[in-house]
Amino acid sequence: MLPKNLKLIFIFLIFSANYVSAQINFSKVDAEIEKNKRSLSKNLVVLIYKDGKIIYKKETGSFTSKTQEPIASCSKWLTAALVMTFVDEGKLSLDDKVSKYLPAFNFNGKQDITIRHCLSQQTGIHQEPFRLFRQLTKKKYKTLEEEVDDFANKSKLDYASGSGFYYGNVGLNIAARVVEVITKKNFSTLMKERIFKPLEMNNSRFDDTEKAPNPSGSAISTADDYMNFLIMLLNKGEFKNKRILSEKAVASMEQTQTALDRIKYAPKVAEGYNYALGSWVQEADNSGKPTVLTCPGLFGTWPLIDNCRGYACIFFVKGLLGEQKAETYVAVKKQIDAVIPSNCK
Predict the structure, then answer these.
(1) At residue 5, does pLDDT exceed 70?
(2) Could you give the percent of the chain with pLDDT greater than 90?
(3) How far apart are CA 225 and CA 6, in angstroms?
(4) Rounded average pLDDT over 33-48
(5) Quick one: pLDDT band at residue 12, thresholds 50, 70, 90?
(6) What angle do the packed helices 27-35 and 323-339 form, to 10 degrees?
(7) Whole-prediction pTM value?
(8) 166 phi and psi angles, rounded to 5 deg
């Protein structure tokens, strides 16, 4: 039996928690999702996390927050975080030349490509605009080493490294190969050891069953798992009192690395956004400091963190991410923002 005074405190704490949750009315968020259900998917999960707990959860169709699906380019954010664990340990610097670890990059004008250029997609290495058919029929490499050697052996750069941004798979995959060389371990193992396991992302992996894993696009995850990753970023590198990344590393990941006039190619859904390290700058304050970071995937998943409002959110679906769906996510976020006030001036 609890003493009377402890009972009162316990009851007060329960009431206070319920009272805080009750203050956030998500009815307009529900209405916005319902209004746009055709452009979304019948299978949808939406999670919002703030102040140590999930404050909104919506599951429709056959999807739950534990449903595993490919998340395409949402993989890039994970890979950037993996690379930053090595920066934290002093085994790598963002301004190291790739050629320091991969000598094949000493030729064909690629000697000035840095790890920062890779994570911010500014290598200058020739790429083609994204086409779904091309992705389905492109050469399947047996190892990440084979793929990155192919990047190194391509002809001259399209433009000087660091002078232009081109969205694709080249940069993040080169950076992933560098950490393989540093550790003499394969990428999938490193991701499991340094990101998935400490973040309790037990239902996540990079698909490497038939070919080399694609650090830029072959992750398979769940809404619950990816939310753990977002929570870590929102908490400046901590997850459940465990330090995954330093505050400095997270701050580096969230710094804008591009300028809009240097963007050579971006998918339609991200046009007008700048790029950080492995993620897009969806919103910035009046000084240009990023406030909302996101990393949408081709199959419709859209994760984000809002540092001004102190929340993380993920839209988890199965289906192609078109412009209409992206516009819907932005519209839903506006309704979320209307009920969660900003702490930024």
Answers:
(1) no
(2) 77
(3) 36
(4) 90
(5) very low
(6) 170
(7) 0.91
(8) -140, 115
Structural tokens at position 173: 């995959």
pLDDT for the residue 138: 57
Sign of the alpha-carbon torsion through 131, 136, 137, 139: positive
Dist. CA 300–CA 326, nearest whole Å: 8
- Give the count of alpha carbons within 13 A of 271, CB side only: 7
Token digits of residue 1: 């039996």
**pLDDT value, residue 133:** 38
- Residues facing residue 57 across a β-bridge: 47
Q: How many CB atoms lie within 10 A of CB 58?
A: 16
For the record, the structure tokens of 217 come out as 């696009």
Q: Is 134 exposed, middle or buried (0-12, 13-18, 19+ CB in 10 A)?
A: exposed
Which residue(s) pair with 220 in the sheet?
70, 205
Mean pLDDT in residue range 59-81? 96
90-97: average pLDDT: 98
Between 235 and 207, name the one with better pLDDT: 235
